[in-house]
Amino acid sequence: xxxxxxxxxxxxxxxxxxxxxxxxxxxxxxxxxxxxxxxxxxxxxxxxxxxxxxxxxxxxxxxxxxxxxxxxxxxxxxxxxxxxxxxxxxxxxxxxxxxxxxxxxxxxxxxxxxxxxxxxxxxxxxxxxxxxxxxxxxxxxxxxxxxxxxxxxxxxxxxxxxxxxxxxxxxxxxxxxxxxxxxxxx
Length: 186
Description:
This protein has 186 residues and is an alpha+beta fold. The protein has helices at 2-18, 21-51, 75-88, 153-161, 170-185, and strands at 61-67, 72-73, 89-102, 105-116, 128-140, 143-151.
């Protein structure tokens, strides 16, 4: 009887340890569903950049979002930035290449192309843009609360290489050097 009871306890223990089908599959299903939702929302954000239509953003971006890349705060500020971007870059295309979700974070590898319409983006009008970057978004209660963006600095420098300011006039440089020498002597 004691032996039978021990076997029963051991079998219950192993059954409870190995039968994770409901819990594991439910957790996996929930994570997969959240990953799918995050992918859909990412695409909607990129569409808002392309089209300038920011009307859907309220439903999945927190009103107090912090954008660490642009050093901005608030959904209204983000909406203005997207509208400005849409107006400043003609033929803007923002294409997600890959997307991953891990816990409360969504990661997206994205390619952005277009041509600057004016100099408001810090580059002369007519500058071709072709950059790949990584977006990292922290999610809380189904809404984006923080954003970080990472770009390959070498890629950005190559893109901007042809758009550098012309060198300063040497007369101006000489005047500045003379002023510096005068200040140093005092």
